[in-house]
Amino acid sequence: MKKRLELKIDGMHCAACSARIERVVGKLDGVDLARVNLATETGAVTFDSDKLDTEQILSAIGKLGFTGSEAEGVTERAEKRREEALQRLDSMRKALIPAFGFAVPLLILTMGHMVGMPLPQWLDPHHSPAAFALAQVVLTLPVVWTGRNFYISGVPALLRRGPNMDSLIAVGTGAALIYSLWNTLLILLGSNPVAHAMDLYFESAAVLIALISLGKYFEARSKLRTSDAITKLMELAPDTATLVTEDGVKKVPAAELQPGDKVLVRPGERIPIDGEVVDGRSSVDESMLTGESMPVSKDVGDRVTGGTLNNTGALTVVAQSVGQDTVLAGIVRLVEQAQGGKAPIANLADRISYYFVPTVMALALISGLAWYFIGSADLSFALRIFISVMVIACPCAMGLATPTSIMVGTGRGAQLGVLVKSAEALQTAEEVDTVVFDKTGTLTEGRPALTNVEVAEGCGLTENDVVRLCAAAERSSEHPLAQAVVRGAEDREISLPPVEDFQSEPGRGIQAVVEGRRIAVGNLDNADAQKLEGLDSGWTEHTATAFAEEGKTALYVGVDGKLCAILAVADTLKPTAAGAVADLKKMGLDVIMLTGDNAVTARAIAHGVGVDEVVAGVLPDGKSDVIERLQGEGCKVAMVGDGVNDAPALALADVGMAMGSGVDVAMESGDMVLMSSNVEQVATGLRLSRAVMRNIRQNLFWAFAYNIICIPVAAGVLHIFGGPTLNPMIAGAAMAMSSVSVVGNALRLRAFK
Q: Which of 132, 256, 533, 555 could make a disulfide contact with 562, Cβ separation 3.0–4.6 Å?
């Protein structure tokens, strides 16, 4: 049986670590897919539970020197991870104080004379070489102790033949320390003490450790900010709620609420659960859910969502979904799932990272030996080259290039009401060149409305009279067109009189007696059956034809056997539809409308929103055939639908974008979920994917360029042509800041609009 295991993995330090775990776990018998995310320190393994169990997977990770554990629930996992990250950050910050507190005096002691800072005679290497060397040892040891994790992690990884970035630092600084300690011993033994005193590298090792630790601190602090979106989402759920009981109200922890509980939400409070309003009226700010800034009116019978903000009036809400079953928890779950995913573009960096560290160690050794034996350099110069190559290389930058951009991008999308379900979908969305819209509920409001009332001459009734009589007669019908007429009366604030002798003709219309008049409302067949007077007039034909050309359904109204009026009912366009289509065209995308309506109605709707290509008369199960045909023509297709009857087409499209009107089904069907009914979010989602992929490519370019340029410089290539060599301390600072720059570039996506 297939099973998915969510993991928390501790002990990873660079892309070589995550790549090694992926490779080893992925080769276990029964594992279908193994994915490890360096930025979130998590992993996911899909495996056959008949061949493998969780303990075997955790054991394999443990043998590699890492700690794997089964992840908790999404909220607890995110909270715990953030708490641990804050504790780790505080520990790193405290360790920087002694690191620089000893490294800076050490640097002054060894390099001060270069800028005219004389040393006292008892410390001067020419007069007291032993004191000079021992002072450096005393200042170096505390710094090495603060950076001991580089050795604790790096050396065992090297011995397991799985070296990581810490191995590079441990070997590089370790070589400098051992060489310097040997020279210190020679000084104490009296073997040419002055010469050996000038050939110590304690300051290189100490300053390297301090600078790299500072870089790791900045990197950790920046990585913490990449998860701000999830943190802010979780903070939207209030900790307490006001429970309504038979004895009154009382404050309780929100975690204790159960379905069926009644909750009082006062103005200014956030709603703690998903539920239905049973008392009160208010406006609710749903911007956290939909990205829309305008509050939404809520009345009895309306649904509300946990985490949204109650603005003006008190609401009593009966809980329907609580805790991990709420929409907000589902959003957090989706965002975390996407952030933990891996885009295909990361595969190249992963493959390179796996071999990167051993390759760099080999290059460092070859460079040092080449300068010593072939370049006739002394051991001190060759050692400096070896250390520089070891510490300049940075696999972290390559490993962080993709996941940090995805974390920030998907988090920003959630804040804008666009949920991206996977990193793969985010990359695919960038390539979309064709957007296919379902009509009903996507470009239109999804329910018919009364749009026109045309009264025939000589009828003797006003528009409101006609609406009153028709709505009263239609009130007893469940047909969507009948309900549109009733809503039209409600919008006009018309009170409806009682009805007598109601009769329904399925497929045609209705008849009833209202205020002593015989009212007939229905289609042309109904009007023919009633033999309404005036049905064959030119006005009737002209009015009905005009409505049809506008994509509206004509309802013929008879009063006492005479055609008195024609009503127009239509599924009205969303206010944002035309602007959304124009925006997509401006992005260079082809826009197609897909609908089951007849061609005349479909063309009228398409004209209203600016869509040039229409595929009409398509049944729900035929929509996927249209998507398949477009893909066969070489198109990269994004399908936009309501997530219910469009599920097959959404699943088949390269990117399925499900409108939030059907959240539960949409989360299953679409690759992206648009949390509001505003179709302008389609362009937002596609632009977000472009911005994220552009950011990833920038990160990968600089990560690769940094290593390609800096490693040869560190190896002394410029020195061959009379240029400078690279000081190991400068190399360490450059390596430390390379990862910080990648994460910093990813954080720019937080400003995406």
A: 533
Instruction: Tell me the two tokens of residue 410.
Output: 């998907």
3-state helix, strand, coil in the chain (%, to 5): 55, 20, 25
Q: Can you give the three-state secondary structure of 678-689, one letter per residue? A: CCHHHHHHHHHH
Residue 38: partners with Cβ closer than 8 Å, 6 or more residues away = 12, 14, 15, 17, 18, 399, 400, 403
Quick check: is 438 catalytic?
yes
Q: Which residue has the tokens 């399908």?
A: 639
Residue 409 near residue 749 (C-beta atoms within 8 A): yes
**Dihedral of CA 484/489/490/495: which sign?**
negative
DSSP string, 50-64: TT--HHHHHHHHHHT
Confidence of residue 650 (pLDDT cuts 50, 70, 90): confident
Q: Which two tokens stand for residue 698?
A: 């920038």
pLDDT at res. 88:
85
**Hey, which bits of 626-746 come out as E strands?**
637-641, 655-659, 672-674
- pLDDT per position as a tens digit, 345-375: 777 777 777 788 888 889 989 999 999 899 8
Q: Are 447 and 551 in contact (CB under 8 A)?
A: no
Q: What six digits make up the tokens of 695?
A: 């950011």
Rounded distance, CA 290 to CA 705, Å? 40
Q: How far apart are CA 563 and CA 554, in angstroms?
A: 13
- Where would I find the H helices in 475-515? 480-491
Residue 569, classed as helix, strand or coil, is strand
Residues 6+ positions from 632 with CB-CB distance below 8 Å = none
Which of 718, 13, 739 minimizes the C-alpha distance to 388?
718
Q: Which of 261, 274, 350, 438 is catalytic?
A: 438
Q: What's the pTM?
A: 0.74
Question: Are 41 and 67 contacting, i.e. CB atoms less than 8 angstroms apart?
Answer: no
Which tens digits make up the pLDDT trace of 154-199? Answer: 888 888 887 877 888 888 888 889 888 998 999 999 888 988 888 8
- Mean residue pLDDT of the chain comes to 84
The CA–CA distances, whole Å, from 726 to 47, 385, 390, 719 equal 48, 8, 12, 9
**DSSP type of residue 27:** T
Q: How far apart are CA 693 and CA 715, in angstroms?
A: 33
**Contact assessment for residue 394 and residue 166, using Cβ atoms and an 8 Å cutoff:** no
> Euclidean distance between the first and final Cα of the chain, in Å?
43
Whether 502 contacts 520, CB under 8 Å: no
Neighbours of 321 (CB within 10 A): 17
User: What is the arrangement of strands in the sheet containing 517-522, beginning at the earlier edge strand?
Assistant: 444-455, 562-573, 553-559, 517-522, 509-514, 499-505
Provide the pLDDT for residue 125. Answer: 86
DSSP sequence for 208-275: HHHHHHHHHHHHHHHHHHHTHHHHHHHHTS-SEEEEEETTEEEEEEGGG--TT-EEEE-TTPBP-SEE
Judged against a pLDDT cut of 90, whether residue 419 lies above it is answered with: no
**pLDDT at residue number 71:** 66
For 213, 475, 485, 526, 567, the CA distances from 478, given in Å and listed in that order, are 70, 8, 11, 17, 18
Residue scoring higher pLDDT (664 or 525): 525
Segment 568-607, tens digit of pLDDT: 988 888 888 999 999 999 999 999 998 877 677 788 888 8
Pairing of β 553-559 and β 517-522: antiparallel
